[in-house]
Amino acid sequence: MKTTMWNADLGNGMYKNPILYADYSDPDACRAGEDYFMIASSFCNAPGLPVLHSKDLVNWKVVNYILPKVPEERYDKPVHGCGVWAPAIRYHDGTFFACFPMPDEGIYMSTTKDPFGTWSEPVNIRPGAGWIDPCPFWDEDGRAYLVAGVAKSRIGYKSVLHMIEMQPDGMGLIGEAKVVFDGNLNEQETIEGPKLYKRNGWYYIFAPAGGVKTGWQTVLRSRNIFGPYEYRVVMRQGDTPINGPHQGAWVDTVTGEDWFLHFQDVYAAGRIIHLQPMSWKEDWPIIGIAKDGNDYGEPVLTYRKPNVGEAAKEAEIFEPDASDDFSKKTLGLQWQWNANPKEDWYKLKSEGLCLKAVKQEEKIKHGDYPNLLLQKWPAPEFICDTTLSLSGLKANEEAGVISMGVKYALLSFARNEEGMVEASFINGEQKYGKILVESTEETSTSLGALVFADDSETITVRMSVHRVGTQDLSEKEKKFPLEEVVFEYSTNGTDYKKAGSYMAAAGRWVGVKSGVYCAAHHSEAVGSCLVKKTVYKNV
After folding, report:
1. 304-326 pLDDT, tens digit each
2. For range 209-226, the mean pLDDT
3. What average pLDDT does the structure give for the chain?
4. For 19, which of 8, 253, 260, 269 could close a Cys bridge (C-beta 3.0–4.6 Å)?
């Protein structure tokens, strides 16, 4: 099912930012011929590491995932905020390399000849906690290197970049690492997410600094890969509404143009993707447009599309999928599970998606159900109608629709011992310690037993997201979007009753995701729920 929720292509040779109003956080990208590939962090959701493809850098579509499951058995349950952090993708000598960190487990590498196909089983090339945001690089002499940042929560310090030699095949590291930059000494606090390039004999490390929501883009350069490096801020927010414009990928076109993809953290919707023109002055990049003689750029809101040469003839106007009638042979690429999935959690049928009632551990709250099937917000405001058939539910089983963040809400439909389906609106909030969830509180409001039109027990849940104002998240983080999420339901598809609402809150390093689930609260889970369709609309 194709629906247009957010498309940046203005159809007149121009585009608008963001090019993706969806949470593809910590993006990196590369060009292979006339094709562009972008990957993003995915934390504990599976499948992991989405691969997006474009012909023109403006229109992108999810075409694959690198990881069918998150490495390590720990992720068979949700571990919010952990898992796959900021990755890098490179195309070298006919092979695609995806290098990604798991801050508690190590630095991993996966490869493929075909980015649309199967990627290799990831290899942990640096076991151990602490290093994050790795990026591989191959020099002209055939030697290879890896640059990486650090996570203070795992290693005790931050704002430091390490460089180490890497095996040319990418499957191991050589020798000892060297600190090549300390942002604590250079007013570049929280420098991380490094990406390594070479141009005109200069080694460049592009790295965000200053913090996720309010920072800037810094570039380091040196004639020696191990430094010393000098630095310059090359993009700031300036007087634009694009807060924290940083962390991403420098890509070029076959016509010789340079462009930069980066994210903007807008809180509940996550880290959305922007595209900036990039130019050079005295071998320093300027990202965005420099104003009043500045040596740094500011983000553009609209601009001409990249000149991608003959590839422009093949470029189509499209966006990642959102709506789904589950008519394909495989689950749509817009969906991810809350943890590593099991094959028997679902089955695609001619009538729709059949979700098995998965038995949940006692005392586990809804936000920690591993079999939540979720997708990213596709636009700033939207309506999502999900149609469920509940006739397959057995006693002490439930199904529903959830909006998932650190604060979350869901509309639950549970069959009781008498065979009736009772509706409840549930609010939840996760309380975090230094790294992990320490407790979750839930409150439930009963909406009573439902009366259905027929034996299929069909119900449509309408979840609408409305921007209702702005909010200050801290003294420095001001005027972020404030969204209200409203739940309604209908047993005839026409007349809707309000179930409840809440103010959206981002997840742990991720934007809010919404989706469906089916759960059992007894020893033998035998029932199921049928998801007939999920339809997204603009408000």
Report:
1. 999 999 999 888 898 999 999 99
2. 98
3. 97
4. 8
Cα gap 489→512, rounded to integer Å? 21
Residues annotated as catalytic (active site), given as ranges: 26, 192
Grouping H, G, I as helix, E, B as strand and the rest as coil, residue 155 is helix
Strands ordered across the beta sheet of 131-138: 131-138, 144-150, 160-166, 173-182
pTM of the model: 0.97
Category of 453 on φ-ψ map: left (φ > 0), alpha (ψ -120 to 50) or beta: alpha
- Residue 208 in tokens: 């965000």
Residue 167: Cβ-neighbour burial (10 angstroms; 0-12, 13-18, 19+): middle
Please state, as a whole number, how many other Cβ atoms lie within 10 Å of the Cβ of residue 468.
12
Rounded Cα distance between 138 and 149, Å, is: 19
Token pair 């570049």 in the structure block, residue: 188
pLDDT tier at 522, thresholds 50, 70, 90: confident
- Counting Cα atoms < 13 Å in the Cβ hemisphere of 458 gives 14
CB contact set of 257 (below 8 Å; sequence gap of 6+): 277, 306, 307
Type of residue at 6: W
Q: 126 with 133: CB under 8 angstroms?
A: no
